[in-house]
Amino acid sequence: MATENTSTYASGYVQPEVDVRALTKVLDGEYAEIRDLVRTNLVTYASVLEEAEELGVDAFRERVRELVVDMAATGQTGMGFPSEYGGGGDIGASIAAFETLAFGDLSVLVKVGVQFGLFGGAILHLGTERHHEAYLPDLITGQLMGCFAMTETGHGSNVQALGTLARYDAARQEFVITTDGDGARKDYIGNAARHAELAVVFAQLEVGGKSEGVHAFVVPVRMGGEVAPGVRIEDDGRKMGLNGVDNGRIWFDGVRVPREALLNRFADVTTEGVYESSIENPDRRFFTMLGTLVQGRVSVGGAGVNAAKVALVIATKYAARRRQFEAASDAEEQLLLDYGLHQRRLLPLIARTYALHFAQDVVRTQLHEVFSGIKDDAPARRRLESRAAGTKALGTWHATRVVQECGGAGYLSVNRFAALKADSDIFTTFEGDNHVLLQLVAKGLLTHYASEFEDLDQLGMVRYVTNLAVETVIEKTSAHKLLERVRDLLPGGDEWDQEAGLLDSEYQLAMLRYREEHMLAGVARRLKRGVDQKRNPGVVFSQVQDHVIAVAHAHVERLVLEAFVDKVRALPDGGNRVALGLLCDLFALSTIEADRAWFMEHGRLTVQRSKAISREVNDLCRKVRPLAVGLVDAWGVPPEMLRAPDLVG
Amino acid sequence: MATENTSTYASGYVQPEVDVRALTKVLDGEYAEIRDLVRTNLVTYASVLEEAEELGVDAFRERVRELVVDMAATGQTGMGFPSEYGGGGDIGASIAAFETLAFGDLSVLVKVGVQFGLFGGAILHLGTERHHEAYLPDLITGQLMGCFAMTETGHGSNVQALGTLARYDAARQEFVITTDGDGARKDYIGNAARHAELAVVFAQLEVGGKSEGVHAFVVPVRMGGEVAPGVRIEDDGRKMGLNGVDNGRIWFDGVRVPREALLNRFADVTTEGVYESSIENPDRRFFTMLGTLVQGRVSVGGAGVNAAKVALVIATKYAARRRQFEAASDAEEQLLLDYGLHQRRLLPLIARTYALHFAQDVVRTQLHEVFSGIKDDAPARRRLESRAAGTKALGTWHATRVVQECGGAGYLSVNRFAALKADSDIFTTFEGDNHVLLQLVAKGLLTHYASEFEDLDQLGMVRYVTNLAVETVIEKTSAHKLLERVRDLLPGGDEWDQEAGLLDSEYQLAMLRYREEHMLAGVARRLKRGVDQKRNPGVVFSQVQDHVIAVAHAHVERLVLEAFVDKVRALPDGGNRVALGLLCDLFALSTIEADRAWFMEHGRLTVQRSKAISREVNDLCRKVRPLAVGLVDAWGVPPEMLRAPDLVG
């Protein structure tokens, strides 16, 4: 180990230097201005980090509300709304603002997400002018608080099966909203327990006795601070974290709202009591409606990555000043960050954070282009939805893992790990459970193979393959062609990857592409085989579920690496480019290393080469180590957000 | 995938049934009585689980103190003390009681650990009759609360380098205790912020200007509820969890205590002011003193395993009743536990919990035998210390992982995941940071190879290899012999493992033994090579640190598997034996699977065989699935400890 690595230094490797300010510019990109506004606001309201501990639940909820309203006044939270209603008219900037807000207290972040993203987003995207005029101006200032009542106790991820009913009463031109059994109570609804006056309620629409599927309605849940008649609200109580957000349960007992309460952008009930929609297919209609809410996923994924940054800044600065016994000499103990094991724990996480940051840039740009009409067509929406699901899953899992890995020394509340841990875990679950999201990604991929499943319709298999997936162009790919595609992934032919340089990004990309394609073909074959054997499709799907998740994960990791490689290639020469190149290699090779068993099992890594990759990862860690503090400083996390005086002081 | 597995059913496999009550007897073993007493107490005081949320920090600390005193009155917490002072005189039972207490609120557990394990244990094991008579009766009832002031801000794991001074003033026959600089303040000390009247203070003893190393002293820190003169105490404040324990910082400013305050079992200062000790070597003396405190590690490891059980019971019962969409049929959604992915996440964790439970039995028995004088010699103490360190590390990491994996659905405080997560994380750090503990294990292993390091003394390498390791018989093993040993590990010769049955426990054990021996030899070689190249020993060690941790981890996993295999073999025929056999296979094969890249890289797994192991793990999961609820019920976690009414109700 030692020998191979020292040779690198001997062969003329020049350690780059990081220009922190220039790197921050690269990272902040086109949204530097709004990010700096949020940074300023975070510092102004930094006391909220202490208040999160010191105040009781009730007082803290009020404090967070106050602060959200104050921040709204700076324009920070309304960037995504049209300027005619007082918004900033820039969807990309609104996501960037939300991401940056994740450096601070996460209750504030989630309250902002609930009010402006979920509630405001539903009014904006599912409603029409009458709703915009009635609600947008006041909700953008935070004067009118609302909640997004989708999730039910009995139905977490399966929104199409919600139990709440909205029956149309043609005589009175009203909808009657009813909670149909306790499983249909709305649950975990942010803003519900205290502050919401309105709720956007997702319910099964029934018109003239016919069920038309899930639609959204604006329902007053409080009037003058009192819970509205027919509405029952229960407080979800103290949670593990995010106690500044007032989550609650809501029941509706025949609550009547006017016909105009239906958010009618995609479907309406006419004054004559006729249901009509511009989208004929009910499934397509449903997924089109849901699709407009994709910004929530993009936001949460980016927020996860930024929460991870806070933990990594603290951990890196701590490791760069904390000495530990097991010293190099008796006189002075060695710095934590000089230990191989510690480098191995920390530096690949920094590399992955950079990778996910640049992948987030890509999905944010896609979102901006679709929702600003710059590039809005069906394939672009499909790509966006799949990518948002995958990036959200990887970004929030990363946050959980980073906080876990870095939090060892940080048990006291005075540094931020306790709060980060308590507050960020749920990110993997809300805005779509990560496992469910990856299934969505996989289903999108699988529809490419749908031609192999001609006889599946009768068996119901197609339901599992395409149910959640948005429509996809079906490629006529035969099994034979598939194999060729897999081979085509290796630019230098079948054996090329056995000789290619480990630091060749084409090699790294080819490895991740190969893994993805091979896994995808495997899942398709397994599903088909199960169906050919006339086995219960549900059982078959259940048995390949881990493969489904794995292929989606592999797909998203490949996209993340592509984003990182593209970014590095586009940078001007200099220390920052060299440094990011090292990080990109570290991300790619540690990702391959983590799955090296799979690559060996599938003939793409020899034992020798697998070991060489591990040595290269060690070597990259040693090269990145002197850059570590600069690399985390470049994220521009305000020092006030770190707390942890004993650790980083 | 499907084909291979269905064949198992076709070939006459008979699904066993679990006899839950009989299995509980097996698990509770000889300590069923004390475990049942603790279960009863847990149910009696079950309200503490709500109080942990509802009460403020101050009130909750008082409530926990009250409860600990009440439990003490039942005899539960004093089992480890001699009966002449009011204890139970059964060290094994005291550990079993502590383990069982981990089903409940973990603040209560840790308060018990601080008071009776750390404080009481130090008085008992480091003190002599005068200390026993003065303190044991009152501390056993909980009337006299104390703390264990070892950790300092500047020195977490490196106790030999503590900064607190205890200078002997021969004229007045007193020790003068002084905090030497802010890094020497005692920190994170449980019971310090509020309740402790006494502290056992670890400090550098100086007699006649000569430093004699770290010794322990009984120092009053409060008198009549007021902090004693010369003592300063600061509250560590709110923590992420365990807020029922009053952790604090302590400074000493020339605090004088009489000569008799030295806990003098292993060393004393005579009335004439002469330092004397029955153990000449200062290092050996120090490690002998520390060694008497090993029960803390044994306790925490067992507690970690039992905290994991609580999370697994909730998660398993939830998965066995919760239906999810992606259903087998339109009519009824499929149970979570019927999903392959869910089985893969949950069932190997249940298997590993069983494995760690039986490994805990072994280390508890060793502890009992050593400390009851049944089998107390130097090699037995060495074995105990190494095993306690390793079992603690694996048990507490397991708890963190299980709580993380199972906690997805459990975000609200009303079920126990929030508390479990917040309270149990620190288990991996206290009573010895897990990474440091595994280094200790590894050093014990490495001393076997010390003969290969003849020339290391001058270079200081031996310091890294043996510093923390307890004395060990040095085996005269040459590198050549080592290789033979590795080969000897495969009972049927060099290629035997390529053909052996995957479910043959001899095969499974041979794989884990091979991994351990090979890694150990590798670390030894790497250290030697670095030293031969005259490189800085600290740097060399830093670069092999991950290998050092890995070998220790491999060693402990092998011990855990051995304990499980032994247990299954000793069971009478019947459903429980078959069920535990399945679990044991699942533990062994999922452990090998998790490290299959290593086995492939080291020629012990072919690609085909590696894939076969994954298929076998899937198959075992499907066989264990119908037994899952019975297997977790057998742990005997009182239902009141589960809370989570919505999840398991």
Automatic annotation (TrEMBL), chains A, B:
- Superkingdom is Bacteria
Gene3D superfamilies listed in its UniProt record = Acyl-CoA dehydrogenase/oxidase, N-terminal domain, Butyryl-CoA Dehydrogenase, subunit A, domain 2, Butyryl-CoA Dehydrogenase, subunit A, domain 3
Keywords from the named record: FAD, Flavoprotein, Oxidoreductase
User: Domain Acyl-CoA dehydrogenase/oxidase N-terminal: where?
Assistant: 33-143
SUPFAM superfamilies registered for this protein in UniProt: Acyl-CoA dehydrogenase C-terminal domain-like, Acyl-CoA dehydrogenase NM domain-like
Residues of the Acyl-CoA oxidase C-terminal domain: 506-645
Q: Name one Pfam family in it.
A: ACOX
The segment(s) forming the Acyl-CoA oxidase/dehydrogenase middle domain are: 147-255
- Residue span(s) of domain Acyl-CoA oxidase C-alpha1: 291-446
Identify the cofactor(s): FAD
Family that this chain belongs to: Belongs to the acyl-CoA oxidase family.
Which PANTHER family does the annotation name?
ACYL-COENZYME A OXIDASE (PTHR10909:SF382), ELECTRON TRANSPORT OXIDOREDUCTASE (PTHR10909)
Protein name, UniProt field: Acyl-CoA dehydrogenase family protein
